[in-house]
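Many groups now describe folds with learned vocabularies. In that spirit, our science desk offers one protein's residues alongside their backbone shape tokens.
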Amino acid sequence: MINGVMIQYFEWYMNCNQDLWNKISSEAEKLVEMGITAVWLPPAYKGIGGKDEVGYGVYDLYDLGEFNQKDTIKTKYGSKDEYIQCIKRLQEIGIQVYADIVLNHKMGADFIQTIPATKVDWGNHENEVSDLETIKVATKFTFPGRNGKYSDFKWNWTHFDGIDYNMANGEKSLFKFKDKDWEKSVDEEFENYDYLMGADLDFGNEEVREECKRWGKWYLELTKINGFRLDAVKHISATFYKEWIQYLRNQTGKELFTVGEYWSGDVNKLHKYIEKTEGEISLFDVPLHYNFSSASKEQNYDLTTIFNNTLLKENPCRAVTFVDNHDTEPGQSLESFVERWFKIIAYSIILLRNEGYPCIFYGDLYGIEKYNIQPIEEIKTILKLRKEKAYGNQYDYIDNRNCIGWTREGDEQHISSGLAVLISNTDYAEKRMYVGKKFANKKFIDAMCNIPDEIIIDEEGIGNFKVNGKNVSIWINKEDI
């Protein structure tokens, strides 16, 4: 999406009083004004945690806050009607809506089943460490609160390939069900990383694949969403997701922009997944996030390496860039929160360059109340600069370990466009950069208000730009404010 910006409109600990969908509807105009073009909404279906479920402990994919299940009708975020109205409101004012899709597992079964299974090694999922034994597992899903509405499909243990809990004796081990094998087209961590949590769906089962397709088609027809954020794709068969996306695109005739969460800092694994799915799915640039996190914590980090081994550098057309998300925030299992001083630098990188599709995190824009993390107000300024200024040819000056920069020359379609960005992670610095001959003799000022000086661009379109230590300055034509 040309110059598009996505926002992840939730964080793990948000207290939304089952009213998030209504809040987003009321904030829609403000999002447009900020330059947001797409909203990634949290999982909308009923989870094992009922009204407190963030969304990833999925119980019933067909219950979008409509049925009395798990001691609540509404989900944590609201009712089905409020969800659909929220989507409609966002789309009315030109914002695309991406739904968070969680197909890897199910939790909160309605009945227990007694089945044969084998224990496997947590460190090597291909290594069986017991003989076949009889266990009791939460694998029968009948959804009595929904009573067959939308789908009469009932799940039982044959639709799963493993689980991590024996209810007969309370043993927490990894069990693989009889005559089942882990999926092969998954991440190779622990030899095979098919299993993540809960009752793990068996995508080798034809009934499972067909039910997931039926659900996807139903969901699209009901909600009219524009695309997907796919959860935990490293644990799900890549061939299944390629098949699933192609089916839904063919059925609906829609583009259905799709981004997957493949959580790995190894860019080669991301390349491999994109290849396996034949480019049908973009991925979050996790390696870039880890570079940001390291740059914010390490002394004297080499900024010339900030793009090394990232999707942004190696496959920008499939890179969704982000600074942090709900999994990296404090207290989460993947905690790798970028230090506050560097966040403004990181957002200038993902928002003001011409590569990648940037995603803003709710917790950065609005704060995280649980940990008293305050909003980063400067993000709004950078968003505004992206919307108005970040166009045209890009010239990079990634040539000093402690001070890097780039410029955007602007284009004819955006009369007041063009800017220069300079970053330092140590001390005050200056750098001569070309910003365009059309700016000759023009005065540039720092839109971030960090440097009070005015900089005059010379006849060749070059300016001697400045930045304070551990900061970013974004220079724009004074006449175009």
